[in-house]
Amino acid sequence: MLLTLANVEVAYGAVTALRGVSLEVAEGEIVTLLGANGAGKTTTLRTVSGLLRPRAGQTWLDGRPLSSIPAHELVGRGVSHVPEGRRIFPSMSVRENLLMGAYHDRRHVRTDLGRVLALFPRLAERIAQPGGTLSGGEQQMLAIGRALMSRPRLMLLDEPSMGLAPMIVQTIFEVIAEINREGVAVLLVEQNAASALRIAGRGYVLETGEVVLAGTAASLLADDRVRQAYLGED
Ligand code: ATP
After folding, report:
1. pLDDT, tens only, 165-202
2. What is the residue extent of each domain of the chain?
3. Is this model's pTM higher than 0.80 or not?
4. What is the distance, to the nearest Å, from the Cα of residue 37 to the centroid of all Cα atoms in its chain?
5. Which family does it belong to (predicted)?
6. Does domain 1-78+152-233 have CATH number 3.40.50.720?
7. Distance in angstroms (rounded) separating the CA atoms of residues 130 and 57
8. Which of 114, 158, 163, 190 is buried most, with the most CB atoms less than 10 Å from its CB?
């Protein structure tokens, strides 16, 4: 297993955000994390990327305890986090933003930049433009592109479709599927449950810090509780 969380508890001071979360991501799969606001989705991603330490439970990356890996070394071990709200560098050009994500051996930078620009032709057209002048969708592409520059094996994506126009949302999901086809595992947090489940192999539903449902994407898409709560059906 690439990533394993077992009975993970995370708290912000007196506020318990995760109450015994267990989940797994295998090499090369897309796993989506669904849940209402405040369910603990972002907290789960922040725990995996080492920004938060569990109060209890275990986390493993490639069978090695995550807690033994300093947060700044996780990128080198293949974990790349695209946080909610994108956080690109607005005054730096698209190219400079992408290069900020390059982590590995400098010799690969040219190849990696070429791959990212092939994936996002829109970024190629805007390569010299300041990041802050891009549209919301283009900034999301830039944030994902920057994360790809580190050659991740596991990408953590926090609400990549948030606040974007429907056509761009479609593009973002297609690109996530394409990145996955190239062998990158994805842990995807989304409010857009239907689109997320369509590209995912499996999913988990979080409610108030607990996994209340887990299964294949197909079984979750067919589940009445998921349909009512997350797919807007009666
Ligand atoms: P959303 O969809 O709204 O982003 P989420 O599922 O990602 O929600 P989290 O952001 O993980 O939820 O939050 C889980 C719980 O932890 C919430 O009750 C939230 O209020 C609380 N929480 C999150 N960050 C902090 C913080 N820095 N300090 C205190 N409590 C926090």
Report:
1. 988 999 999 999 999 999 999 999 998 999 999 999 99
2. 1-78+152-233, 84-150
3. yes
4. 17
5. Belongs to the ABC transporter superfamily.
6. no
7. 43
8. 190
